[in-house]
Design brief:
412 residues, mainly alpha, Amino acid/polyamine transporter I, 17 helices, globular, cadmium ion transmembrane transporter activity, transmembrane helix, transmembrane, NRAMP_fam, membrane
């Protein structure tokens, strides 16, 4: 009688261990997506828009989060149910489209990673007083180490969770110290005094644009979480990622709003650092360094991992040596920053092209979800198709407008 009981206990332990591992991956994917979107640009955009719109920025945050949730739930579910990466789905919808999508993603990921590496260097400069280039190199070594260890996926999940947790706690503390007018912010969430379409587009593009859209979905595929049976967990994970991003956005908004409401002048040279310094003095400035470094280093990891995931299916050698290619991606970004700095024209051009990735990718996946050779018998919820289509149209139109406005200025 003892043997069956022992076998049952062992089986229960295995099941419990598998559930814990799955929960860890789901949370890791959510934080990978969230921390990928919370980079140096995120900190600057949120502060600048708060300065411009004051309490009305609360409405912009609400609308952008709703658009983000629709985009992420659609993309994560379609990736999971098809069991294919974004570029593989696109190639099945239209041969060659996956290659175009991969080129755009890799170009954007590499260009923005130069900015992420620069942000990591600036974070260590504010935190410890290190030279930004030295700080960038040290940060690159930390990022590379994650992909050298045997269980790179688990290491990446844990790193994203810890860094994300630290950022949220520090940001909430600073928001509390500035004593923002919370009542005014709540009122403007529903009835804004002014509305900025540009701010909404910028926030959506920064949160779910480019490689960020696929970061969590591809991570779940790599961990073997796919199929119709996994959809409840996949959906929950995607919403968790947006929720983490939202908490960070709201906390930074309230911190900046508290400073603006007091009539204090924010330094245009470094808006987010200025907010932290005005809120908590030199300690606040050091805290900004910690947040900037954590935001930048997790974005370096997310950009490299997701960009390379878009070319892995193109050749068996890439799949075999994927971690070394990711490391090479980080090295190229760091060397470019150390030798050239941030190539402004390239960053602006790729930024304009990056705005097209969300409508192109989401539109392609919405077509794919109605093809049986891609998703089998799966029936996509109609409300997700309709809301996803609305996001595609809105972001497509505004992205093309952005391109038309920016391209002539870039080639003057």
């Amino acid at each position: 009688m003892g043997v069956p009981k022992l076998e049952a206990t062992q089986e229960n332990n295995k099941t419990s261990g598998k559930k814990k591992a799955t929960r860890s991956v789901l949370l890791g994917a959510a934080f990978l997506m969230a921390t990928s979107s919370i980079g140096p640009g995120f900190l600057t955009q949120t502060t600048v828009f708060t300065q411009q719109l004051a309490a009305s920025f609360a409405f912009v945050i609400l609308i952008s989060l709703l658009l983000d949730v629709v985009a992420q739930i659609n993309i994560w579910r379609i990736i999971a149910v098809s069991g294919l990466r974004g570029q593989e789905i696109a190639n099945k919808v239209l041969p060659g489209l996956g290659v175009v999508l991969a080129i755009l993603i890799v170009m954007g990921g590499l260009a923005f990673n130069i900015g992420n590496v620069a942000g990591a260097g600036l974070g260590l400069n504010a935190m410890l007083g290190l030279d930004p280039i030295v700080g960038a190199i040290i940060s690159a070594v930390v990022a590379i180490f994650i992909f050298v260890v045997k269980e790179a996926g688990k290491a990446m999940d844990k790193f994203a969770q810890i860094a994300g947790g630290v950022m949220i706690l520090l940001m909430l503390y600073v928001a509390f110290t500035t004593s923002p007018p919370v009542g005014e912010a709540i009122k403007n969430t529903i009835m804004p005094e002014k509305i900025s379409i540009f701010a909404i587009v910028t926030l959506v593009g920064g949160t779910v644009g480019g490689y960020i859209t696929f970061a969590g979905g591809h991570r779940l595929l790599d961990a073997g979480i796919k199929g119709v049976e996994s959809l409840p967990e996949v959906t929950k994970s995607s919403v968790t990622g947006i929720a983490v991003t939202g908490i960070m956005r709201v906390a930074l908004f309230l911190a900046a709003l508290g400073v603006v409401a007091k009539g204090l002048a924010i330094d245009p040279a470094n808006p987010p650092a200025s907010v932290f310094k005005l809120a908590a003095g030199d300690i606040g400035f050091r805290m900004f360094g910690v947040i900037m470094w954590a935001a930048a280093i997790t974005s370096v990891v997310g950009a490299a991992y997701t960009s390379v995931s878009f070319i892995r299916s193109f050749h068996p050698a890439i799949e075999k040596h994927k971690n070394w290619i990711i490391i090479g991606f980080i090295v190229v970004s760091t060397v470019t920053f150390a030798l050239v700095g941030r190539p402004v024209t390239i960053l602006l051009l790729v930024g304009a092209l990056n705005a097209l990735i969300l409508p192109l990718a989401l539109g392609t996946l919405l077509v794919a979800v109605y093809k049986k050779n891609i998703v089998g018998e799966y029936k996509h919820p109609l409300w997700l198709t309709i809301t996803g289509g609305i996001v595609v149209v809105i972001m497509g139109y505004l992205s093309i407008q952005t391109l038309i406005e920016q391209l002539p200025q870039l080639f003057k």
